[in-house]
């Protein structure tokens, strides 16, 4: 149980393109999902908390107009990197948990490369 | 804001040697979780500690939560090549309605056969 699917796994695109990443909880409902960003050999940095049916909560320093989050259903959250530039290249990972105080289950991540 | 540091940043051991990573939070935690991330993979949940002074074991892995609930450790006995990866602690503070975690800086373990 507790499977989180993330799509796509890899994205390579030109600078200025907007990229959408999907995160789905396959066998449970998740009112809250989390989006992280990870640079090579570094830790996971929480970008935002995605709340079903309401606005996402962004961490300090994360541009909400740059990283659009939509959590339209209990099993799907999307992260859109708008007008991506090379400095946005990174590994983006989502996670979800059954409920508060339960472990987080991670998607496989999306490697984003902006040329 | 809350910070979670881990030491060492990197550890290289011979297969069969023991390994320990230490995790320290700037604030008191309601619980702490440990994750393992293999190279190229995503973090996988290992364990959660909730009580002050709690010790849990999973085969060769021993996890401990400090009395003050601000630090934790992971000890691996007799490492194997399958233990290779980065080990992250992740702390949850008090308050807040969500399951928000702050990840530690991680310890990369390399095991030489």
Q: Oligomeric state of the chains?
A: heterodimer
* Order of SSEs of chain A: EEEEEEEEEEE
Number of discrete helical segments of chain A: 0
In angstroms, what separates the terminal alpha carbons of chain B? 41 Å
**Percentage of helical residues of chain A?**
under 10%
Approximate shape of chain B: globular
Overall geometric form of chain A: globular
Protein model, in words:
The complex is a heterodimer of chains A (115) and B (113). Chain A is an all-beta fold and 115 residues long. Chain A is 0% helix and 51% strand. Chain A contains no helices and eleven strands. In chain A, strands 2, 4, 5, 6, 9, 10 and 11 form a seven-stranded mixed beta sheet that branches. Chain A is globular, with a radius of gyration of 13 Å. The mean pLDDT of chain A is 93. With 113 residues, chain B is an all-beta fold. Chain B is 0% helix and 54% strand. Chain B has strands at residues 4-7, 10-14, 19-25, 31-37, 43-49, 55-58, 61-65, 71-76, 85-92, 102-103, 107-112. The radius of gyration of chain B is 14 Å and the shape is globular. Chain B starts with a strand and ends with a strand. Chain A binds chain B through residues 32, 34, 36, 41-46, 49, 51, 57, 60, 93, 95, 97, 99-109, and chain B through 1, 30-31, 33, 41-45, 48, 88, 90, 92, 97-106, 108.
Topology summary:
The complex is a heterodimer of chains A (115) and B (113).
Chain A: E1 4-7, E2 10-13, E3 19-25, E4 32-38, E5 44-51, E6 57-58, E7 67-73, E8 76-81, E9 90-96, E10 105-106, E11 110-114
Parallel strand pairs in A: 2-11
Antiparallel strand pairs in A: 1-3, 3-8, 4-5, 4-9, 5-6, 7-8, 9-10, 9-11
Chain B: E1 4-7, E2 10-14, E3 19-25, E4 31-37, E5 43-49, E6 55-58, E7 61-65, E8 71-76, E9 85-92, E10 102-103, E11 107-112
Parallel strand pairs in B: 2-11
Antiparallel strand pairs in B: 1-3, 3-8, 4-5, 4-9, 6-7, 7-8, 9-10, 9-11
